[in-house]
Amino acid sequence: IGPSAKDATPVLIDAYRKDLVERADAVYALGEIGSAHQAVVPFLIEALAKNKTNSQDTARRWAAEALGNIGTTDKRILPALFSHLEDSSVQSYVVYGLLKRGSRDRTGMLSFLKTVARPESSKNLQECAGSVYQHIRPVLKYEEPHLIALLRHREPRFREAAAVRLGELGRSAKDAIPNLAKCLSDEDGKV
Fold first, then answer.
1. What is the pLDDT of residues 15-60, one digit of tens each?
2. Could you give the CA distance from residue 10 to residue 59 in angstroms, rounded to a whole number?
3. pTM of the prediction?
């Protein structure tokens, strides 16, 4: 199934809502259809927000992942994903979705970084984001202020990665020198 199956979109949405098919299967199929049909993005946003019971978790996870994979610049996707960022039942899928969006949406990636860099972000969110840091790194090279903010992050791997990247930027990151100097006394020796 893929974009060529877009004519099946209304049938799949109806089957999902009437519980005629396994909801997760309908969400998966609609995610594969993607933005080929205008009803898919609003439906996936709805499925992500749907009842947060265990029977809905798989459908919600696939909705978050599909929203990240859809190759559209639909402005509703990022706010929908961000609204579930602290929801532990779908969090890793939301982070994945945000990272996938980030490869096409620099603003969305920077918003994600700002959220994760906040000291008050939950430890669970930071650990989840930390596990996918390699996807964040290519975007960081353009944003020295966000790198400086990450030098104060509670997660050592973020501080380390930000320090390394600022070092790679060389003279163009000269404003970061005072912050980098503070890292010399970081409790984690790798930083």
1. 888 876 678 888 888 888 887 788 889 999 988 988 666 555 788 8
2. 17
3. 0.61
Give per-residue pLDDT as tens, 147-167: 787 788 777 767 777 787 788
Dihedral pair phi/psi, residue 10, rounded to 5°: -60, -35
Q: Work out the number of other CB atoms within 10 angstroms of the CB of residue 104.
A: 13
Measured CA to CA in angstroms, residue 13 lies from 48, 177, 190 at distances of: 14, 54, 50
Beta strands in 70-169 (DSSP E): none
Q: First CA to last CA across the chain, in angstroms? A: 46
Single out the residue of 51, 59, 68 nearest to residue 12, CA to CA.
59
Q: Provide the token pair at 123.
A: 């430890």
- Helix 54-69 vs helix 91-102: crossing angle, to nearest 10: 10
Q: How open is the CA angle 91-66-142, to the nearest 5 degrees?
A: 70
d(CA 74, CA 35) in angstroms, rounded, equals 9
Cβ neighbourhood burial of 123 (10 Å; 0-12, 13-18, 19+): exposed
* Residue 173: DSSP 8-state: G
Inter-residue contact 67 to 102 (CB < 8 Å)? no
